[in-house]
Design goal:
Oligomer: single chain
Distance between the termini: 41 Å
Order of helices and strands: EEEHHEEEHHEEEEEEEEEEEEHHH
Number of domains: 1
Helix content: 10-25%
Shape: globular
Number of helices: 7
Structural class: alpha/beta
Strand content: over 45%
Number of strands: 18
């Protein structure tokens, strides 16, 4: 499992408070009866029953009902359904706690859909509708993956194992109008690399956690772009004890009464000599009631490396608004154009612009 970092200094230890939890009737006889005949999943189910759902400030849930039907899934090229996967042992081998153990278990036990991909090449995946899904990707060679989700409710896990010398380009496009809890785990072997461009657009509440463990000379570049008119809380956690590289450059747009929280935790152990680590977050506040929090954190036990972090927020600059309005755009049109440019400054697929327009309306 991926454990939290050690908050220890000499004989002093921090106190980490567990979230308050609530019991919800989220499984019944029909769900239990329909569980696949898997001893591993039944072991997970015994653990799942003994954990209640967390109540987070960012994701206050008055109730929970699991989707009654799977989403519509469109797969292109050589991706498979999770039920055809020959690598399902990865669920056991790469078990992890995620943003909260309850949600990781929920997706691993009760998933009604998911994707399995092994090897290299290009794939495209689109999910429409409410979903509980678990996904496994084993990258050997060069791969380009595009994933799109458009729905109201989702709990999802994704495990990416990037083999030695392999390269992955990953693009995620998300639109959620209700609740989404997403956990992503990257295990990057020696001299492998990942570029992850992630656009999350939300009128609902989103809690997302990305965990990274990299072997020697691995590299990951993460470009999160987040727009929310409700609440979006995203966490990026990495642990290094050898030389590798991790860069996170986050852009957010908070709309109306929306709130965006960026959390970055880089736990850099002794032995990461020559490593390079950076986390930066900036958010545009479109309205007076829009809010933003940034919590970039570095825990460094090695002196011979480069590590930096930074965070900022601002309203849209007056001179940019003036420039556009002087050319005939009204105030709202000008704000929308600037926000779109801020979010879509990297090379996303054409669907990204449509998602952004939907939340900026």
């Amino acid at each position: 499992m991926v454990k939290t970092f050690e908050l220890v200094h000499g004989k002093f230890r921090s106190i980490v408070r567990n979230p308050r939890r609530i019991k919800l009737d989220d499984y019944g006889e029909e769900i239990i009866k329909n569980l696949p005949n898997s001893s591993f999943r039944m072991v997970l189910f015994e653990e799942y029953k003994n954990i209640d759902f967390p109540i987070w400030r960012r994701l206050e849930m008055e109730g929970l009902s699991l989707p009654s039907r799977p989403p519509i899934v469109k797969l292109e090229t050589n991706a498979k359904s999770i039920y055809e996967c020959s690598k399902l042992d990865i669920l056991k081998e790469y078990d992890f706690e995620g943003s909260d153990r309850k949600y990781v278990l929920l997706a691993d036990i009760f998933h009604t859909s998911g994707v399995c991909f092994e090897g290299s090449g290009k794939i495209s995946v689109k999910m429409t509708g409410d979903s509980i899904d678990t996904n496994v990707y084993v990258i050997d060679g060069e791969a380009k993956i595009k994933r799109i989700f458009d729905g109201n409710f989702r709990v999802t896990n994704s495990r990416f194992i990037i083999k030695k010398n392999a390269k992955l380009y990953l693009e995620d496009l998300l639109f959620v109008s209700g609740v989404e809890v997403e956990n992503i785990f990257f295990y990057i072997e020696e001299n492998a690399s990942v570029e992850y461009n992630d656009l999350g657009v939300s009128k609902g509440k989103v809690a997302k956690a990305v965990f990274v463990i990299g072997e020697k000379d691995s590299k990951i570049v993460i470009n999160p772009r987040v727009a929310s008119s409700s609440a979006a809380d995203v966490l990026y956690f990495s642990r290094s004890n050898v030389r590798n590289m991790m860069y996170v450059d986050g852009h957010g747009v908070s709309i109306g009464d929306g709130k965006i929280i960026f959390r970055g935790i880089m736990d850099i152990k002794k032995g990461a000599v020559g490593g390079d680590y950076s986390e930066k977050f900036h958010t545009l506040l479109l309205d007076e009631s829009s809010t933003f929090e940034a919590i970039p954190s570095l825990y460094v036990q090695e002196s011979e490396l480069s590590a930096q972090h930074g965070a900022s927020s601002s309203p849209i600059p007056d001179d940019e608004l003036f420039y556009l309005m002087s050319r005939g755009f009204d105030l709202e049109e000008a704000k929308t154009m600037i926000a779109q440019g801020f979010l879509l400054d990297i090379d996303f697929s054409k669907e990204a612009e449509d998602f952004v327009k939907r939340v900026l309306k």
